[in-house]
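Question (not urgent): is this output format expected?
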Amino acid sequence: MQKNNLLTDLPVDLTQEVFEPLVKTEQLLIERIVSKAHVTPQGQWYDQQRSEWVMVMQGAARLEFIDGKFVNLQVGEHLNIPAHVKHRVAWTSEEVETIWLAVHY
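Got this back:
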């Protein structure tokens, strides 16, 4: 076993948003996502097979839902997104990396 820290050893190259699986089974995926000024392209929506619980551990983000609602997430705030609820990342902090903890179940 190896101890790790979600807030350290951040990727150097953030030209693309980085998705790092931490635990992966058939029923569960826990991942660290690192964003910096990343957004989902206009007109593209996540439509996931499983529900997703997300928490912002550093930085800040704004999610947009297909029904036109927005949810702003600051450090420590979390949200559960049911399966097939279409959403996109509308904004992430430009000043500091946004570190997400995501649990797909």
